[in-house]
Specification:
The complex is a heterodimer of chains A (385) and B (368).
Chain A: H1 2-14, H2 16-28, E1 35-40, H3 45-52, E2 59-63, H4 67-71, E3 78-81, H5 86-95, E4 101-104, H6 115-120, E5 123-125, H7 132-147, H8 150-158, E6 174-178, H9 182-194, E7 198-203, H10 211-214, E8 219-222, H11 226-232, E9 235-238, H12 252-257, E10 263-266, H13 275-283, E11 289-292, E12 312-314, H14 325-343, H15 373-384
Parallel strand pairs in A: 1-2, 1-3, 3-4, 4-5, 6-7, 6-9, 7-8, 9-10, 10-11, 11-12
Helix pairs in contact in A: 1-2, 7-9
Chain B: H1 2-16, E1 18-23, H2 30-36, E2 43-48, H3 51-55, E3 65-68, H4 77-90, E4 96-99, H5 110-114, E5 119-121, H6 128-143, H7 146-154, E6 170-174, H8 178-191, E7 194-198, H9 206-211, E8 212-216, H10 221-227, E9 230-233, H11 247-252, E10 258-261, H12 270-278, E11 284-287, E12 307-309, H13 321-336, E13 345-346, E14 351-352
Parallel strand pairs in B: 1-2, 1-3, 3-4, 4-5, 6-7, 6-9, 7-8, 9-10, 10-11, 11-12
Antiparallel strand pairs in B: 13-14
The chains are: A alpha/beta (385), B alpha/beta (368).
Chain lengths: 385, 368
């Protein structure tokens, strides 16, 4: 802090170019020691990108060929989860005693969370924002798919019949988002920009959300008021994480609250909907159709009734699996890593009690405290008086 | 006293009304809107549903104008030309024909071209928004590899596949008119797409520069086809564009490219398109129009899973007559006042008139 104050005084005398140079010096600073990071899971792109993006200047990555190698106790201070399973993660945490930080290359972290992790004091970060735009495009696609009555025309095509019917405007719809976080905000932004639809959303404690998230939707309400959304939306988008309170959230009761022509979309976690109830709702015409990227069981067993239903659009948890998937997630990881190395604080931090990345209940502030130049000038003037 | 003056005024108004023949079936949804907007204060109209009715008419007929409705009616595209062939020689007072569609290839025939008195107008702009949404749907459909995912679904297979971003795609719009422009604007807004436009007279206005990356003419079609990921055909049906898209053109496109046809099916050599789709010359097609409509049951296009199919209906929205009748309303008011009409079609070119009126035929500036 003292160094910065002195720096600002110097700058005010010497001008703009020195100000920039001084800031760069502050940024580089004394070079920190490299984190010893265990890479859990194998993917050929990860070592390639670590080298290409220069991430190995800040970490020493350790790759494993077998599970036994990974479980040997060592001094790993952090871990990068590329792909794994809950048991493996739990065992890794018990064996490694000096672990302080785990970063997940996926946005959903429900399978990494466990009682062991909560009590161990390890910080967990995720790939927030890496896939939000891809999922937003998928929601836009789902809306247009049903507005233009694609399932009906596809059926006619398979029957070789020419039976024109009138279609709808997707831009005249109302969209309801249940679980408004980073993905919900990116979806709302894209839908507003492209179709200018009306968007209503609900989240936990919305009054504490930052302004940049509020600007994207027309109405943001508390999650207790989900009924308003369900009863009036033409497209209901579920972006809920998997927690104790959201398991089985979308059941027959909630589907009955939706309109008969409404379309249900799930891009959060499959366990937040009850598959049996969804199948019933679709068969009995309680809702008109569904767009699903996630399922209660993945891979969805071949016996599932969802496969045969014509008014279900399915992608196999690959709506965000774009060709640049690894570039995107490693870029987010690099951002989190650089921030941690520079300030010792974590971005994209998961609130372990809630079980997801809360935009409100941030466990620690990410920006180091600093006084702005303007405020400093004011204080200086006061002293003179 | 007021009653008699009203009767007198009414007589004057009735005398000023022009006589309109509407080619349609009786229960059409558009009539409700015509009544709601009080357009029948401007004209007396008769509904004509078939060729026989025209043949039974006395010669000469009283009609000054004709409204050809071929959307959601019992009148097919192929019925219109014979009806006009019979109708035009019988109607010496006919000076205006308005077409409910944007495309007018089914209306223009030799009799119409030879006539020196008749102005043809179309419903430019009425269907742009809905058609643009179909183009956006096609781009997203093929970006997310739905042709493969739907095949997997039919086989109950759960297989993760790599998908593409739709953001930043390159789209070529062949035939940059009203529909092309509105499509480009929607794609730019939603996907930040890079637009390569082709039109007969390539000129970039200030508006266009914000949306279009490249504007070219007929010679630039091969360049655009080789550059873009999505080719959108919006060309009208005129002799120059017939069977423009043949195997030669499909081979110039990328093998991952998708062909979207929202213009006319006549621009495509359908046999070549089928082979190109089957053998992977192009990755897929989004088709709203076909060479023969309705598409015959035996057509192989029905069996191709990489075709996004629509029976020429993506422009027509439920309760969408408001837009179409708004265009008609404008023309009616201009016609009734004797002013030059908007959306005039150049009968020699086969599509919209250019902005400069150099090709205007003498009678098109004054209609009475």
């Amino acid at each position: 802090y003292q160094r910065r104050v002195h720096g600002i005084q110097m700058i005010s005398r010497l001008g703009k170019s020195l100000r920039l140079f001084s800031r760069k010096c502050q940024q580089i600073g004394p070079y920190p020691p490299r984190e010893l990071m265990a890479i859990i899971g194998n993917n050929p792109k990860v070592p390639e990108l670590i080298k290409k993006m220069g991430i190995d200047r800040l970490i020493t990555p350790v790759y494993f060929n077998t599970e036994e190698e990974m479980m040997k106790p060592d001094n790993y201070t952090s871990a990068l989860v590329v792909n794994s399973n809950p048991k493996q993660i739990e065992q890794f945490i018990t064996n490694q005693k000096s672990l302080k930080w785990i970063h997940s290359t996926m946005a959903g972290v429900d399978w990494i969370l466990s009682e062991k992790l909560k009590t161990s004091g390890i910080k967990l970060t995720n790939a927030k924002g890496a896939f939000s735009h891809s999922l937003a495009e998928f929601v836009l696609f789902g809306m247009l798919y049903y507005a233009k009555k694609t399932p009906y025309f596809n059926e006619q095509r398979l029957k070789h019949t020419w039976a024109p019917i009138e279609v709808d405007f997707a831009s005249k719809a109302r969209v309801g988002i249940i679980g408004y976080g980073n993905i919900g905000s990116a979806t709302a932004k894209l839908l507003k920009r492209s179709l200018n639809v009306e968007i209503q959303a609900c989240a936990e404690e919305p009054t504490n959300l930052k302004e940049r998230y509020l600007n994207n939707c027309d109405m943001l309400m508390d999650q207790k008021e989900y009924q308003t959304i369900l009863r009036s939306a033409d497209y209901v988008v579920g972006i809920l994480p998997k927690t104790k309170s959201t398991e089985g959230y979308f059941d027959l009761k909630k589907f009955k609250m939706m309109q008969k022509h409404a379309i249900f979309m799930n891009i959060g976690r499959g366990v937040t909907m009850v598959e049996k109830d969804l199948v019933t709702a679709l068969k009995e015409g309680i809702i008109a159709g569904a767009v699903l990227d996630v399922f209660p069981q993945e891979p969805l067993p071949a016996t599932s009734e969802l496969y045969d239903m014509k008014n279900v659009l399915m992608t196999y948890h690959c709506a965000d699996r774009t060709t640049d998937y690894w570039e995107r997630t490693m870029k987010t990881f690099a951002k989190v890593l650089v921030h941690y190395v520079e300030t010792g604080k974590f971005k994209n931090l998961i609130n372990l009690e809630l079980g997801y990345l809360s935009l409100i209940h941030i466990s620690e502030p990410t920006r180091p405290e600093r006084i702005s130049y303007a405020v400093f000038c004011l204080k200086k003037k006061k002293k003179k008086q | 006293a007021t009653q008699s003056t009203w009767g007198f005024r009414k007589k004057i108004m009735e005398n000023k009304k022009f006589n309109l023949a509407i080619f349609s079936n009786k229960g059409h949804a558009a009539f409700k809107i015509i009544h709601e907007r009080n357009l029948d204060a401007f004209f007396n109209y008769d509904i004509i549903s078939s060729l026989e009715e025209i043949k039974a008419m006395p010669n000469p007929t009283k009609y000054n104008a004709c409204f050809v409705m071929t959307v959601a009616t019992t009148i097919k595209f192929s019925d219109v030309s014979p009806m006009l062939e019979e109708f035009i020689p019988k109607s010496p007072n006919l000076s205006w024909i308005h077409c409910m569609n944007a495309g007018i290839d089914h209306v223009v025939n030799e009799t119409l071209k030879k006539s020196t008195k008749i102005t043809l107008t179309n419903s430019k702009g009425a269907y742009d928004a809905s058609i643009a949404e179909f183009v956006l749907l096609s781009i997203l459909y093929f970006s997310k590899k739905m042709q493969f995912l739907m095949a997997d679904k039919a086989q109950h297979k759960f297989q993760m596949r790599k998908v593409n971003h739709a953001a930043g795609v390159k789209v070529g719009i062949i035939g940059y008119g009203s529909i092309g422009k509105n499509t480009a604007i929607l794609l730019k807004k939603s996907l930040d797409a890079k637009i390569y436009a082709i039109r007969n007279t390539p000129k970039l206005t200030e508006e266009d520069k914000a949306v279009v990356q490249f504007m070219g003419g007929e010679k630039d079609i091969p360049y655009v086809l080789s550059e873009v990921d999505y080719v959108v055909n919006v060309l009208p049906n005129i002799p120059k564009t017939v069977k423009l898209f043949n195997m030669n053109m499909f081979k110039k496109m990328k093998s991952s490219a998708v062909f979207i046809n929202i213009g006319r099916g006549s621009a495509v050599e359908e046999a070549d398109l089928i082979v190109a789709l089957k053998t992977g010359v192009i990755a897929g097609a989004g088709l709203d129009v076909f060479a023969v409509e309705p598409l015959p049951e035996s057509s192989p296009l029905y069996d191709l899973n990489n075709v996004l199919f629509s029976p020429h209906t993506m422009g027509y929205v439920e309760d969408g007559w408001e837009l179409c009748i708004s265009v008609f309303e404008k023309e009616v008011k201009l016609f009734a006042e004797g002013k030059p009409l908007e959306n005039i079609v150049d009968l020699n070119r086969g599509y919209q008139k250019s902005v400069s009126y150099t090709h205007l035929r003498a009678h098109e500036t004054s209609l009475h």
